[in-house]
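Readers outside the structure-tokenisation community will struggle with the description of the input data as it stands. What matters is that the chain and its backbone geometry are given together, residue for residue. For illustration, here is how one protein appears when written out as sequence plus structure tokens:

…
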Amino acid sequence: MSEKIDLTPSEIVEKLDTYIIGQKNAKRAVAVALRNRFRRLHLSADIRDEVAPKNILLIGPTGVGKTEIARRLAKLCNAPFLKVEATKYTEIGYVGRDVESMVRDLMAVGYNDVKAEIEETMREKSVPRVEEKLLDLLLPGSSPKVHEQEEVNPLGFMIEDGTKLSDTQPKKPEQPVDASTREKFREMLREGKLEDREVELSVKNRGIQSMGVIAGGNMEDFEKSLSNVASLLGGGRHRRTLTVKEARKILTQETLDEMIDSDKVAEIALKRVEESGIIFIDEIDKIAVRGEAAHGADVSREGVQRDILPIVEGSNVNTKYGVVDTTHILFIAAGAFSLSSPSDLIPELQGRFPLRVELESLHADEFRRILLEPKNALTKQYIALLATEGVTLEFTDSAISRMSVLAEEVNAHSENIGARRLHTIMEKVIDDISFDADKHSGETIVIDDAFVDKRLQGITENQDLSRYIL
């Protein structure tokens, strides 16, 4: 969860600065959009529903931070966030109502987030219950409580949750176990002395795997039906031999599931998705229709735009957790628009993205800052990775400057992939060190501009070769 939900625009920009370099205009736009959502929640009921979110269209080449801005924004406000690619809906079987799957997926994200938060608050309360269940497994028949079997259903060979009756009946011990023995085992269990002891546990079968795309269908409903059929056929649970440590994890999750009211979770998640959900639609430029007349694939692209339009405008979408109203979900669309322009989108969809922000291409100065300043800076990542092998990496200022200049040059001469070019260059520079890290354990390796040039010599000199390698 975020530390503070009601962040001011300047605080939002400040937090985004710790991960994303530059793009001041884009950060300001998303910060204001997020703050307006907070302001809306404090309006009176009669005007609150009239205030629609100001959806944003981010325009800029790949690798300049479009996706990262949206993702970090969602984390700041603890909002359900989903990223989708617009091109996904041009595939066979996805055109039409299946664009609603983005809302169903967002609802699933919201449900899982809320469930995880509630589980965390109840985890401590679940410990005594899990302990009792582990003792029942270690000492069958020693529980002071008498567990009555659930009523057998009409099929006569399993109980309500699909568990075979034989799987739930406790084994009778050869000799009765007294209470003192159970308490001794409880003490050993708490001291961690029984972690490697094996027990036999009845566990739920894994969910049925997706069977692929079914044109025009709702995959959620289909998989739910298959799961119900499997349960009726007695495939709900099976027995496994596990260590106490492994069994504790499974029992903890099952106990938490028993303690949590799924309807209450769905209710909270539904409200959160409707009020603060964010859907990031990437590659929206790929479904823009170019030219005067649409034909061939362009017809399909325009159809996808018209299918997305009602969801962005505000419509009700059925999900297995309830009906979601998309009116106040914030949509952030992004695209390079190198071969098309925002005006190539249908007018209705353009109107639903009133805020347009053009992100700037990155240059050597930005690349240098990207390598040094963010919390997850590449140099910090590689230093930490190689430190696990006992290798100490040191990057000099000259090395950082040289890699930044190279990234700008390669982007200028070939495809501009933004900050992702730094990953390619950095990996090439320390390739040998990474491969032979075990041989350099305990050493300190200094990477300077000469080291960088030596590793990339030949590649940078040959422009054609750099197109393939870098």
